[in-house]
Amino acid sequence: MGDDSEWLKLPVDQKCEHKLWKARLNGYEEALKIFQKIRDEKSPEWSKFLGLIKKFVTDSNAVVQLKGLEAALVYVENAHVAGKTTGEVVSGVVSKVFNQPKAKAKELGIEICLMYIEIEKGETVQEELLKGLDNKNPKIIVACIETLRKALSEFGSKIILLKPIIKVLPKLFESRDKGVRDEAKLIAVEIYRWIRDVLRPPLQNINSVQLKELEEEWVKLPTGAPKPTRFLRSQQELQAKLEQQQSAGGDAEGGGDDGDEVPQIDAYELLEAVEILSKLPKDFYDKIEAKKWQERKEALEAVEVLVKNPKLEAGDYADLVKALKKVVGKDTNVMLVALAAKCLTGLAVGLRKKFGQYAGHVVPTILEKFKEKKPQVVQALQEAIDAIFLTTTLQNISEDVLAVMDNKNPTIKQQTSLFIARSFRHCTASTLPKSLLKPFCAGLLKHINDSAPEVRDAAFEALGTALKVVGEKAVNPFLVDVDKLKLDRIKECSEKVELVHGKKAGSAAEKKEFKPVPGRTASSGAAGDKDTKDISVPKPGPLKKAPATKAGGPPKKGKPSAPGGAGSAGNKNKKGLETKEIVEPELSIEVCEEKASAVLPATCIQLLDSSNWKERLACMEEFQKAVELMDRTEMPCQALVRMLAKKPGWKETNFQVMQMKLHIVALIAQKGNFSKTSAQIVLDGLVDKIGDVKCGNNAKEAMTAIAEACMLPWTAEQVMSMAFSQKNPKNQSETLNWLSNAIKEFGFSGLNVKAFISNVKTALAATNPAVRTSAITLLGVMYLYVGPSLRMFFEDEKPALLSQIDAEFEKMQGQSPPAPTRGISKHSTSGTDEGEDGEEPDDGGNDVVDLLPRTEISDKITSELVSKIGDKNWKIRKEGLDEVAGIINEAKFIQPNIGELPTALKGRLNDSNKILVQQTLNILQQLAVAMGPNIKQHVKNLGIPIITVLGDSKNNVRAAALATVNAWAEQTGMKEWLEGEDLSEELKRENPFLRQELLGWLAEKLPTLRSTPTDLILCVPHLYSCLEDRNGDVRKKAQDALPFFMMHLGYEKMAKATGKLKPTSKDQVLAMLEKAKANMPAKPAAPAKATSKPMGGSAPAKFQPASAPVEDSVSSTVELKPDPKKAKALGVSSKAKSAQGKKVPSKTSLKEDEDKSGPIFIVVPNGKEQRIKDEKGLKVLKWNFTTPRDEYIEQLKTQMSSCVAKWLQDEMFHSDFQHHNKALAVMVDHLESEKEGVIGCLDLILKWLTLRFFDTNTSVLMKALEYLKLLFTLLSEEEYHLTENEASSFIPYLILKVGEPKDVIRKDVRAILNRMCLVYPASKMFPFIMEGTKSKNSKQRAECLEELGCLVESYGMNVCQPTPGKALKEIAIHIGDRDNTVRNAALNTIVTVYNVHGDQVFKLIGTLSEKDMSMLEERIKRSAKRPSAAPVKQVEEKPQRTQSISSNANMLRKGPAEDMSSKLNQARSMSGHPEAAQMVRREFQLDLDEIENDNGTVQCEMPELVQHKLDDIFEPVLIPEPKIRAVSPHFDDMHSNTASTINFIISQVASGDINTSIQALTQIDEVLRQEDKAEAMSGHIDQFLIATFMQLRLIYNTHMADEKLEKDEIIKLYSCIIGNMISLFQIESLAREASTGVLKDLMHGLITLMLDSRIEDLEEGQQVIRSVNLLVVKVLEKSDQTNILSALLVLLQDSLLATASSPKFSELVMKCLWRMVRLLPDTINSINLDRILLDIHIFMKVFPKEKLKQCKSEFPIRTLKTLLHTLCKLKGPKILDHLTMIDNKNESELEAHLCRMMKHSMDQSGSKSDKETEKGASRIDEKSSKAKVNDFLAEIFKKIGSKENTKEGLAELYEYKKKYSDADIEPFLKNSSQFFQSYVERGLRVIEMEREGKGRIPTSTGLSSQVEVTCVPAPTSTVSSIGNTNGEEVGPSVYLERLKILRQRCGLDNTKQDDRPPLTSLLSKPAVPTVASSTDMLHSKLSQLRESREQHQHSDLDSNQSHSSGTMTTSSSSTANIDDLKKRLERIKSSRK
């Protein structure tokens, strides 16, 4: 007992979890008691047990479990929060309770499940139970089925979804366990009780014995409709209410309710759609065209098998239908025709509405094929056309059917009529409006008079069916001319007809329920049901015709003009209907006389033709009296008018007699039954007299009376044709005037516009102005009725006339046509008819438009035109569209048959070229106007695609689409658009633009409609999803449209449709519905025409305020734009306040609210670690797939169940993407608040997101990426590091998305990859991205390559895994990719690596194909050009550059790369984030710059390099300075080809392959060595120099580091380069073309080379360095002096800035500057001083004096001062005029410094040397330690003093003075004797003379000692100099060495200065005579350097001779030279290949 006492003390909830069963039993009992006591369902007590309920039901001890189940049941019944536990508890019940042996346990389990259903958790319960059906234990399966059966029996088929159950039934019937099979039978019977025969098709394939048993059971079931016996909580209150109402006031509503429950499920819905298009035989389309009928049969049989599937998946069946149609129409074998018809039947049945779009194409073919006599063919065709009819509407195919009705073949006529009869059976009064009935009746009436009896019978049947469908009242107007016998026959047929809707009473009733028939009344139920009676619908509501609506109002057929109408209006109405429009045979004159004499006095007849006018007059008076007294029935109208027409008839000469005669005609017409036959007798005479001055009015009166009797349309047509067949203009104008008036009196209905228009045109062309005026007046009147479309017929009239017509129309604008006062007989019936059929109010207008003459244009829509419209080339497509527009324009009004045009135009609506889309939309607008209402039949195949265009991202395209849709809707009415699923499919698309435009359009159109098709309900689910769309505009539009949907569908249906929403969404939507209900506008009333009848009931009262609510509803919906949170609260409060919502509704909504509170991620300790272990131990599947299979999803679901909130998991794994969106939104909201949870579940979250990457829905993807960005930001803030498991199961899938076609997505993915590097090492990311480059998707490859570039750029080379070499080789493969973007990306990436790593890249990427290599070098060159583009700009960028260069410390010896990469880095650092997109931009920018700066022409021959005037790019952009080089005159026009060849060779100079480079250099050298050809290089110098220093860089970085390369090769390449350069810099004109930037880079390269210690170590390295030394001198002397000076200043500035740069480098740059200063006296006049001073200014700005003083060496400041001093000395005060280019002189000390110097030089007196001495002295005092200098000079003077060294001493002193021009040697001379002083001076002068005299030679060869010391920037160790700067002793060995060098280097001293030494001597190699090819020369060994002098001599002489001869002979025409050069280059090229 001790144990017991332990647990007894525990609280209840802990007892329930205790391991002792007794403790648990006790706990459950106590819990049960607690549960029964708690009264408040929201009590916090419930929440304590929330996590335990599953344990209650799954207890392992059976006894305890029973008690637990009892407690759980009470909990579920009473606890507010119980819903949260549904999933886990029901799955517990299924797995742990249903398998228990105790029946009690099972019962309780079932009860719990049913209770969950009652508390609105049906879906979850059903889901769990259906899962239970897959259990292996049959007991569980049986229990699950039983539970489902009970649930269905109690709750009904509304709550329990039958579709999923029916799907699994066949499987259950196949079970091996008898119990399962029996239970399956029971549930099948229960389902049958609810849905009846709908269940049969899905169970067709089960065992026949079982099926038979089922049939037996089904027969026993009662026939009454079943009702649910148990209700959901939310329904229970409503139910109680209903019961009260039923007991109080009959069961009308209840009946309605039940009625609409039965047809809830359609068998078709239960079927799985089968995809058949892919299963068609591959050769189907060939076989179907085969010549052998057997093959065609095979093809058709294959299709027949496929279409037997009862439900087919939608797809593009156009080709298949086309093929079948062809067989039906053209095949000669009737068997195949029948087979094809069967296939079409199968397609139509399987696709249903989705087949509708093809119906129009097939119907005419089938109808025409009815000419076949064979019964099986006819039957197949009938089945086909009937099946097809059900997929479309009668309206859509009416045109085709009507066209076939005129066919001559009687069988076709018969079958068409029968088809019409069958079609009518499917119609209702609303779907068979007057406008449709009219043409059909007209056609059928022809058939009832046909000679063939079968045609007549079929027509009678069709008319009888129509009569049955719409009632006599609607059909009678069309049957006026039918005689009684035939009429009876029609009625007889109508009684036999059984309508389809009669059988399906329920469905018809449902259709009627929310749809009072439009037009009768706006809202009275009684009237609304009137026509339901005709359709024999057993509807419990009031069915009797409401007589009230009929009696009131004007009499239907009364003739107000009759003076004393006998009988009531009602009688007249009946009479009128029977006798209207009498058809009378023409009588002979004898018969007429006989009849007339019976009614007229005898004297009257005798005197008719008396010769005395008075007698005739008296006769007429008697005649008139007799007519006035005659009764209508007795009046023989025809006989009387015949009498009047009798001689003299209308030729009567006396006007009084004539007037009387005309008056009598009018009387007869008014009083008698006047037929058209009678009218024809008199009309001619009337028209003849209408122009008569005296009798005209009487004639008009008579005509009006006839028009009233015989209908205006007929009369007018007769009168017009008669008037215009005679010549009398007066008659014509008066006839037109009469017609104008008549139209106003009679109205326009029925008038044949076509007939008038030709007459009016004749009238307009008349010479008589009165006729023209009358015609224009008539047009004005017609305009009132027809509207603007009337003008289209007269557009080709003369402008003057057209302006008159326009003026008349203008007058009429805005007027409404007057109400008709005559012809009411006709008009009232037509008016009421119009009010009654379900047409839109604009019906009258449509009638008018129908009358317009229409042109047939199908013959113009040729196949060529159609193929043009679909052409690949947009220009041709545009031409095609232009042609179509032209055809429509020309035709004005067209017939609806437009051939293949719809499909062609549909294709253009999604054209990639938006201009064409807009053009297509314009054409469609035109088409709508031109085709008029007939455009209806194209709504499905052309109209709906226009709606798709509303989703276009471009505003103007959307606007055009909207205008087009409106133009169409104007013609078609809205019904066509709203029918079927098409509109809802559009709304389903997740495109915010489409949604907002479409909803806006619906909100505008719906309020104007009086009724809508039931299919509108299909849009509602999508409307609800729009209410929660993340786009605000969409939400707003959806809210605006809500009241209008409700107006047509009713609140109930709308609320019912929320059932499928998520609980939270449901609450929000219901709240919005409540609000919309309050603002719901009333439906618009019937149009004005029908308002003369009272509306019945309270309609008018309801309607008056309608306009206001519409306004309100719109405004209020706008104001109350609820965000989800507010909406939730709002829903609750509004429900709580409302009277009904006592407790239940608020309870449910609050329940849902709390339902989702609490954390969404549950932290499970070590959960992640465990999952990783499981995956490693292969306990679970490794997350690795190409597409996610179900087992992965299930596994993830299971893993998530423990750590993700249940409701969120439901959202995450829902089948509908919108739920995924919601899940993501929730996850975003909880991201900050649940960091730990997120990190704990990170692996699962990432896995779930990878599943989302496989969804096709963009909105989910965007949301997922949005979440990922936030997620990785959070992770980096938390300093979290991704585990390998997380990375490997996520990154590969993310990388897939980088290849998405949408830019936004790619951008997001790249941003995420960037952020990921903060939580996962870049080096580990690298292999994943590398893997991504192997994708088949080119976008993905490109983006991955870009990303790799970014990684290298941001993290250096060490990210490249496994090794940089392997990685780069992989990347380099893509340079040869077939896709341009991929190539670019690969090149950019390698350029980026190059920037970081320099020339070593070439070594790493290994060997590439030549093409790839040249592309790469090209790209590197292009990116290299940027740095030197604008030296001026560099200044502002300096601070960044310092930092970027210093950050890359490894750039110490990168040569020119340093500058370039610094630029690139800086471009990056400025732009803020290194996204790879910039790399591409940068690449293109160069071209832009060039275009901007270049004002010459650009040759476009070869794309390798921008060819001409490159120096412009390198000029400082800000300096408006004249161009430096002039293009040689012939260059542009004659050298273009040479230029491209040179470009090609130059591009090879930078090749990574040494031999290629050497070959290219050789070719260039050949050109340079021949003076006459050297000028071809003009314009390519910069290009050549760039290529050269690229190659230098390449050697420096790559080749020198490559152990495998022979060093001899490198030396050879160096020799070539330097030789080439020296050749180039000998030619001054070419040398001057080098621009500043290029010179800077070149000097950088050369100096770097001189400092390369690796070269010094090679045996011939010294020689190379000497050659470079010489080259530098050449460059300094021969280049454009401004450019080189500027380049050196910038280079010095850069080298001082770059901390990585070696001090020696700067020193050599300064030595070059000193050399330049030495040259200044000679060159000062050719220098652009402004530019140099600008450079100095910039230098001083970057390095103010203080900063310079901090430098380690004092050389920089001295160099600068020396330069400035020299400039001052040479220019004097004028120097200050050259500061023009400096914007802000205060930025540096330059101006002040110059001023000081000027002042200084002015103040100083005495000789220049004094000044210099002083200045020098002061400088030395200032800067260098005196002692050092003194020691140095003392050393020199000591030498001068000693006898041996005196000469050497003097030379050194001379050198010293030259070098330090301002050095002060005065102190040393002062103490010595006068003799010594003069000796020294004389000695110095001698040396000076010697040097000045000979100096020219040495300078040109670069040999004099002075050159060595002052200029050549070589370290002293490399090249010794006379007199070391340190003043040490120099041993004789140095001089020997020096002598050797001089001998090797020098030819004869007598070389003229002007002649340049040949290449060989400069390269210090033995020269081969010039004839020898330069390649041989290059290959000669350097070991032969020390050969005898003679050889040099020869070569020099040779070379001189050749040069001089070249100069003397005037060069032959340059063209020849170029050709020669071309040929040579071609030869070289071909030999290389």
Structural commentary:
With 2033 residues, the chain is an all-alpha fold. About 19% of the residues have low confidence. It has 111 helices and no strands.
Estimated helix fraction? 55-70%
Oligomer: single chain
Stretches with pLDDT under 50, minimum 5 residues: 250-263, 503-580, 825-847, 1088-1154, 1426-1494, 1496-1501, 1518-1535, 1805-1824, 1895-1928, 1947-2012
* SSE class: mainly alpha
Number of strands: 0
Question: Roughly how many Å is the radius of gyration?
Answer: 52 Å
Proportion of residues in extended strands:
under 5%
Net shape: extended
Largest sheet: none
DSSP helical segment count: 111
What is the mean pLDDT?
A: 75
Termini Cα gap:
105 Å
Q: How is the topology of this model organized?
A:
Layout: H1 2-8, H2 12-16, H3 21-37, H4 44-48, H5 53-57, H6 62-78, H7 86-97, H8 103-132, H9 138-155, H10 162-173, H11 178-195, H12 208-220, H13 233-249, H14 252-259, H15 267-270, H16 284-287, H17 293-307, H18 318-330, H19 334-351, H20 356-369, H21 375-391, H22 394-405, H23 410-425, H24 434-448, H25 453-470, H26 472-475, H27 484-496, H28 500-503, H29 505-513, H30 525-528, H31 530-534, H32 547-551, H33 569-579, H34 589-599, H35 602-607, H36 613-629, H37 637-645, H38 655-671, H39 676-689, H40 696-710, H41 712-725, H42 729-746, H43 753-764, H44 769-786, H45 799-812, H46 824-836, H47 843-850, H48 863-869, H49 874-891, H50 901-908, H51 914-931, H52 939-949, H53 955-972, H54 975-978, H55 982-988, H56 992-1005, H57 1020-1027, H58 1032-1056, H59 1063-1078, H60 1099-1103, H61 1107-1119, H62 1124-1137, H63 1144-1155, H64 1167-1176, H65 1190-1201, H66 1206-1212, H67 1217-1229, H68 1235-1240, H69 1242-1253, H70 1258-1277, H71 1284-1288, H72 1291-1297, H73 1303-1316, H74 1322-1332, H75 1338-1355, H76 1364-1373, H77 1380-1397, H78 1400-1405, H79 1410-1425, H80 1431-1447, ...
Helix pairs in contact: 3-6, 6-8, 7-8, 8-9, 9-11, 10-11, 11-12, 17-19, 18-19, 18-20, 19-21, 20-21, 20-22, 21-23, 22-23, 22-24, 23-25, 24-25, 25-27, 34-37, 36-38, 37-38, 37-39, 38-40, 39-40, 39-41, 40-41, 40-42, 41-42, 41-43, 42-44, 43-44, 44-45, 48-49, 49-51, 50-52, 51-53, 52-53, 56-58, 57-58, ...
